[in-house]
Amino acid sequence: MTEPQSTHRVLLVEDDIRLANLIVDYLKSHGMHVEVERRGDTVLTRLINYKPDIILLDIMLPGMDGLTLCEKLPDYFAGPILLMSALGSNEDQIKGLELGADDYVVKPVDPALLVARINNLLRRNAKPPQAESHCLTFGKLSIDPHTQAIRLGDTEVDLTSHEFELLWLLASQAGQVLSRQYIYQYLLNIDFDGKDRKIDVRISRLRKKLGDNIETPFRIKTVWGQGYLFAPEAWNN
């Protein structure tokens, strides 16, 4: 039987061999290329050679648990992360989502539902090319959309793809307050539910990397009750 042509690359991080084999067989029957990693502490090394479109991540793993790994992944991986766990309480799900996961499913999960969740995340993660083709400069800060190079004075700032997307969105509309709803719709193609903290976490990381004051930010400002504002005049020093 000929396997359908692969359209998406999946990294499945799961130490249950029987379950992993069942998931692999089902995903392959739906045209996906799947590789399996059985330990949490070897995932980051695996990403050097395998460039997945999405990561399916179990929480209970040897070497490094999935929640700890979920915090580290955004520095190495720009695609969506789908957590899978037998821990199904609201608290467990909220914790996983706040740590950076894009979705959460409770095991055992129906295979058809898993495929639907994967396809939904991949659709949401697909971004059109940046419409702006020019570099942006604010004082000592320069942003190159072609290479995603960021310089602040003489220092090159290393951002993840997610962080760059957010910075570019804010900087390309400098001086304007962007609501969380707008940011969620633009970057994630979902509505802001009032609870999700993914964008807040990315804002916090941007501030740290760009030398903003964490307690009283003046470069990427929080406008309470409205959203975030990139201050164009704050980058001269």
Automatic annotation (TrEMBL):
Alphabetical list of InterPro entries matching this protein: CheY-like_superfamily, OmpR/PhoB-type_DNA-bd, Sig_transdc_resp-reg_C-effctor, Sig_transdc_resp-reg_receiver, WalR-like, WH-like_DNA-bd_sf
GO cellular component, one term: protein-DNA complex
Record-linked SMART domains: REC (SM00448), Trans_reg_C (SM00862)
Limits of the OmpR/PhoB-type domain: 133-232
Modified residues (4-aspartylphosphate): 58
Domain Response regulatory intervals: 9-122
Pfam family, one: Trans_reg_C
Main localization category: cytoplasm
Biological-process GO terms, alphabetical: regulation of DNA-templated transcription
Record keywords, A-Z: Cytoplasm, DNA-binding, Phosphoprotein, Transcription, Transcription regulation, Two-component regulatory system
Any GO molecular function: transcription cis-regulatory region binding
Highest rank taxon of the organism: Bacteria
SUPFAM superfamilies linked to this entry: C-terminal effector domain of the bipartite response regulators, CheY-like
UniProt DNA-binding residue ranges: 133-232
Subcellular location: Cytoplasm
Protein's name according to its UniProt entry: DNA-binding response regulator
Organism: Shewanella colwelliana
